[in-house]
Amino acid sequence: MRTAVGWEQHSVGVARLRESFAALPPGAPVRLAKRTSNLFRGRAGAGPGLDVSGLTGVIEVDGDVAEVQGMCTYEHLVEVTLRHGRIPLVVPQLRTITLGGAVTGLGIESTSFRNGLPHESVLEMDVLTGSGDVVTTKPGDALFDAFPNSYGSLGYASRLRIELERVPEYVALRHVRFDGADALAAAVSTIVEHRVWDGERVDGLDGVAFAPDELYLTLARWTDEPGPTSDYTGQEVFYRSLRRRTTDRLTVHDYLWRWDTDWFWCSAAFGAQHPVVRRLWPRRLRRSDVYWRLVALDRRWHVGDRLDRRAGRPQAERVVQDVEVPVDRLAEFLAWFDDEVGMRPVWLCPLALRRDDAERPWPTYPLTCGTTYVNVGFWGNVPVGPEAPSAPRNRAIEAKVDELGGHKSLYSEAFYARADFDRLYDGANLARVRAAHDPDGRMTDLFEKVVGGR
After folding, report:
1. Is residue 88 included in any domain, yes or no?
2. Which of 61, 87, 232, 242 is most exposed, with the fewest beta carbons within 10 Å of its own?
3. What's the Cα-to-Cα distance from 135 to each of 11, 51, 129, 154, 159, rounded to whole Å?
4. Domain boundary among 194, 225, 258
């Protein structure tokens, strides 16, 4: 059982971090020494890096605020905060995402329609910059505001002070079917505005589109009402339940990790949803980080490509992306996606920014205040043929999302030209912040990191 590490132990972890920075060869690139990652794009080869091994815990919980180390996973963070009857305002869906990773990257989940993105509940953080300084920064500071979606190009968070919210023991679910994306989008707009559907409060909201005429919203309501609960860590698979039942009940803990057990639906690629395989596959190994390691092995040895060639199948293009599109363009995007990409199911997660002190308060991911977006997540391989290495489907998705006034997060591959990238992610502001905190350019530029693959 995880317990709070306390301030003294945190100081030791920060000292170790500083020592590892000082030990880097003069002028060497500054990067993390950790090998694990939830990123789905190439990473630079191993080399000297920052020692963050002492920054993996919760420092303390004080009422509705927690002090958390940057490399603490949400799995460990939630384990600690639930003992206080609380959770972070947004808990990304995969257990091993770290708090620092969700803030310097992007995280989203079913509470994002009312609580925004994980970085919007950060009150203060300490960031190790490319100059070797640990800078304390708050909302409104140039470094703080540019940090989300910067993916380590501006520094690494060693400590974050975050808001928490109270939760009861259970979550009551309703799965509501829609026969078209227009009707679903209208329902999303209503729920975001009123936080109520059919007379019941809505605390969490996400959905799945199985087909153009079969889409579901899952409406979650925090509750203390006792009753039987479902278990989707065993033989049952959560996403399949949306089509089989209209109501459900989970513990808060199991609700937070409902997508992790089967990596949404992606565990099917490894046979983990076959009844026989599932009985033999240890429950403790049915989790997203295990599947991610299997994907990493496939990428290293090209097993899938070899099997496709042997079977005479067209060469596949990997399409692993999350994009945000305005809710009033959702139906248009899904119709285009069906025609041009043809991958189902896809995840749908509504989002509205919480912060409203500027039209676009987060310059590196400039969503607009007052606009409801829907995150569309799709992850898999699409048969393309010989042109697959040039990523035609991914490039088309980037262009369409831009056309519709949306954005895409950068945890996976990106293919933008430099000018387009700088326009979409405010490259000029990133350059100013980098010049202030990393004058020698020791941290990799964001474009080079996510498009150049460094």
Report:
1. yes
2. 61
3. 15, 18, 7, 11, 10
4. 258
- Here the tokens at position 222 are 């925090």
Quick one: 161 and 177 in the same domain?
no
| CA dist., res. 239 & res. 276, Å (int) | 19
Number of domains present in the structure of the chain: 2
Predicted pLDDT of residue 350: 98
CB atoms within 10 A of CB 326: 18
* Burial environment of residue 142 by CB neighbours within 10 A (0 to 12, 13 to 18, 19 or more): middle
Q: Are 135 and 197 contained in the same domain?
A: no
DSSP state of 152: T
Give domain status of residue 77, yes or no. Answer: yes
Q: Are 359 and 369 in contact (CB under 8 A)?
A: yes
Whether residue 157 sits in one domain with residue 21: yes
From start to end of 288-368, where are the E strands?
Answer: 316-326, 346-352
For residues 108 and 378, give the distance between their C-alpha atoms in angstroms, rounded to a whole number: 14
Task: Indicate if 79 and 204 belong to the same structural domain.
Answer: no
Residue-number span of the structural domain to which 240 is assigned = 170-258
pLDDT tens figures, 232-291: 999 999 999 999 999 999 999 999 999 999 999 999 999 999 999 999 999 999 999 999
**Looking at residue 36, what is its pLDDT?**
60
What tokens does 175 get? 């799965």
Side chain identity at residue 339, one-letter code: D
Q: Give this prediction's pTM.
A: 0.96
CA torsion angle 326 327 333 337 (round to 10): 110
Looking at 131, 152, 167, the residue that finishes a domain is 167
- How far is CA 76 from each of CA 32, 132, 265, rounded to the nearest angstrom? 20, 28, 24
Predicted confidence (pLDDT) at residue 20 exceeds the cutoff of 60: yes
